[in-house]
Task: inverse folding
């Protein structure tokens, strides 16, 4: 199955840029890098619908644009519905002969708030209706564009402006909502997690998600120096640590079958990841221990699904 | 040859969408709109209509999906009612500001709470500032005609704005009336193929819906305002073209009854037909009375309205919506404001009734006319009066 997809690797990535320079992403932004790579993987025959958020704001201030591919933004919460209309519109116009038949990839782009909170209804509807589209969630684990407010994708223990750490609080007191699993529950053909620290893996997944007929969901871990309070040269390292500690495992679910893309025999302690970021600085050993236990448990569940998929 | 058959307004609107050969329908069921998407879904399932029917998960997504479909150049249709219209409110502004000619029929319904599935105009009034063209229908024939006309006007290259076609929930949506359906050839003559000049296309990459910093936003919004006001020329031209092909004649403001009557009653939607019976009886008795059926709500027909009321002494406006804490019925307020600077203008009296499907009978219209004249002559303690409310109603004072 995988053989039919072009594999990206060294010297196998186009030098063409679809996201033009001059955008206003913060220095060291993991999302900007991931977006640029995703666009390269998709090529020029795409239409992108973008939710309100960092990506939208950093790329489209009138009268200029960073987009060299057709791009539309309407609102925050409705990107999956907008792309549904684009996909259905193109399909029927081709069927009726109004526009020529061709392969145009319909891609929705949103952040974690636009996906796991305000946009989840539209996303669930679009996945369930089986539109042929790819949904890319760039997860920087809070509402970064509006100033680091917590979302349901914010990890346990992180300090944000609306769930700040204080004398009586550790910050976020709930576990991160598992969006890839919610996507899997829609029985769609393809779900994957990706991280720009693993650029070829990310590009291959985006390409695969775009090529597959039917809905595909790729959840992209996007380190945010501004919101996570880490040095601007650390996005790649932090992304790698998230994977190596098991906090953000890289996996794919193709037609319900799980596959781990980076499987380390032994996970690094979560502390190595947590200590790189100011948002976790207040955590005491016992909280770090709780996080470690949770990660171990979730990782074991994932491994069990992978094991089940190979039997 | 056109044919005359029995149709409820819902099915008449669905027929119009079919004859317009819509490409995409995205709708979410809500009473009393349901018969419209049901009929369209049936047409698609039976191959009577070559369209994508998208059963979305909410009205918010219905309008968002329509926006996406229109942005790739598809002829796009949806329908909703009351709370559904409120739920898509945010997206209504996007459709108009992005100049996407989505056509929507609204089966007018009251808003919660208390929950009411029955008709009034609270929904239509709450969206009057969203930048859509809005027209009201009196009967099933008009539901067909206005829906077809909406495509012609909204998609006009000089307009490119979304259009809302209003007809009263239940009073029209669920009542079968004779409707004349035209031949497809006539429809094709009236309605050219849709060509959207800014369609999303990988060969011509465009950025749609970019954000506007303060030094651009105002210009963008004023441009939109000018476009909506300018659309009135095409609105009128559309009525004329419609008459030339189908023979039925519509106007933005439709006077009825005695010319230059001293007392005028103004209504919108299905109320106008009931009111006409009362007006007929009274004019037969020699009373100086007439009716104004206000068809076009946005862009507001200032010139036509001023012309229609210029000889009148009293203008009684009957609203089907409360503007809570405001100056009276919303239609009445706008009309008062439209006439305020006229050197000679009628006294404007406001009544509110027919809320949440409450029937307004001929007797109620008799009361409104008689009491309206009394108020015009002697004044009233309240800002407006209500119709058919049980028990004593306290004066609604400013």
Result:
């Amino acid at each position: 199955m995988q053989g039919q997809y072009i594999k990206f690797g060294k010297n196998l990535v186009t030098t063409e840029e679809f996201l033009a320079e001059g955008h206003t992403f913060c220095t060291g932004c993991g999302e900007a890098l991931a977006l640029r790579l995703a666009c390269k993987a998709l090529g020029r025959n795409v239409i992108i619908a973008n939710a309100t958020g960092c990506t939208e704001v950093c790329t489209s201030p009138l009268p200029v644009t960073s987009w060299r591919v057709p791009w539309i933004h309407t609102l925050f919460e409705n990107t999956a519905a907008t792309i549904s209309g684009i996909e259905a519109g193109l399909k029927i116009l081709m069927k009726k002969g109004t526009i020529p038949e061709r392969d145009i990839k319909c891609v929705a782009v949103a952040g974690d708030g636009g996906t796991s909170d305000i946009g989840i209804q539209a996303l669930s509807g679009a996945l369930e209706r089986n539109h042929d589209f790819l949904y890319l969630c760039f997860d920087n684990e809070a509402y970064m564009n509006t100033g680091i407010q917590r979302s349901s994708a914010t990890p346990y223990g992180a300090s944000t402006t609306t769930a700040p750490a204080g004398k009586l609080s550790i910050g976020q007191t709930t576990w991160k909502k598992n969006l890839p699993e919610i996507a899997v529950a829609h029985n769609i053909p393809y779900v994957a997690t990706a991280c720009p620290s693993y650029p070829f893996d990310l590009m291959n997944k985006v390409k695969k998600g775009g090529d597959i007929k039917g809905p595909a969901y790729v959840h992209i871990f996007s380190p945010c120096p501004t919101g996570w309070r880490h040095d601007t040269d650390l996005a790649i390292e932090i992304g790698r640590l998230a994977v190596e500690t098991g906090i953000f495992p890289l996996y794919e679910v193709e037609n319900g079958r799980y596959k781990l893309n980076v499987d380390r025999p032994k996970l690094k302690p979560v502390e190595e990841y947590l200590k790189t970021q100011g948002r976790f600085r207040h955590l005491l050993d016992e909280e770090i221990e709780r996080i470690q236990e949770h990660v171990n448990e979730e990782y074991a569940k994932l491994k069990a699904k992978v094991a089940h998929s190979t039997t | 040859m056109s044919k005359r058959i029995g149709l409820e307004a819902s099915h008449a609107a669905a027929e119009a969408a079919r004859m317009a050969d819509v490409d995409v329908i995205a709708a979410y069921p809500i009473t009393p709109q349901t018969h419209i998407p049901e009929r369209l879904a049936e047409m698609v399932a039976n191959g009577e209509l070559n369209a994508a029917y998208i059963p979305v998960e909410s009205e918010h997504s219905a309008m968002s999906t329509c926006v996406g479909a229109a942005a790739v150049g598809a002829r796009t249709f949806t329908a909703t009612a009351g709370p559904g219209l409120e739920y898509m409110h945010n997206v209504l502004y996007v459709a108009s500001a992005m100049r996407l000619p989505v056509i929507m029929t609204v089966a007018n319904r009251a808003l919660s709470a208390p929950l009411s599935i029955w008709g009034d105009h609270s929904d239509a009034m709450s969206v009057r500032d969203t930048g859509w063209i809005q027209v009201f229908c009196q009967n099933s024939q008009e539901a067909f005609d206005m829906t077809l006309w909406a495509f012609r006007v909204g998609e006009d290259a000089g307009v490119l704005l979304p259009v809302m076609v209003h007809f009263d929930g239940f009073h029209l949506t669920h009542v079968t009336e004779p409707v004349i359906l035209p031949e497809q050839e006539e429809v094709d003559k009236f309605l050219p193929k849709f060509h959207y000049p800014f369609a999303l296309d990988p060969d011509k990459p465009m950025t749609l819906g970019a954000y506007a910093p303060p030094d651009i936003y105002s210009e963008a919004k004023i441009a939109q305002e000018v476009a909506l006001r300018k659309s009135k020329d095409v609105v009128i031209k559309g009525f004329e073209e419609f008459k030339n092909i189908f023979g039925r004649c519509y106007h933005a403001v439709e006077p009825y009854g005695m010319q230059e009557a001293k007392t005028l009653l103004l209504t919108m939607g299905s109320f106008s037909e009931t009111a006409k019976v009362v007006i007929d009886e009274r004019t037969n008795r020699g009373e100086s009375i007439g009716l104004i059926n206000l068809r076009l709500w946005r862009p507001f027909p200032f010139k036509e309205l001023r012309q229609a009321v210029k000889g009148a002494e009293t203008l009684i406006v009957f609203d089907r919506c409360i503007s809570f804490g405001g100056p009276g019925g919303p239609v009445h307020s706008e009309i008062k404001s439209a006439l305020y600077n006229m050197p000679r203008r009628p006294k404007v009296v406001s009544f509110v009734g027919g809320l949440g499907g409450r029937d307004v009978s001929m007797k109620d219209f008799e009361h409104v006319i008689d009491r309206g004249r009394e108020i015009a002559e002697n004044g009233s303690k309240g800002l407006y009066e209500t119709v058919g409310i049980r028990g004593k109603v306290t004066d609604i004072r400013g």
In short: Residues 254-386 of chain B form a domain with the Rossmann fold fold (CATH 3.40.50.920). Chain B touches chain A through 46 residues (CB under 8 Å). The radius of gyration of chain B is 21 Å.
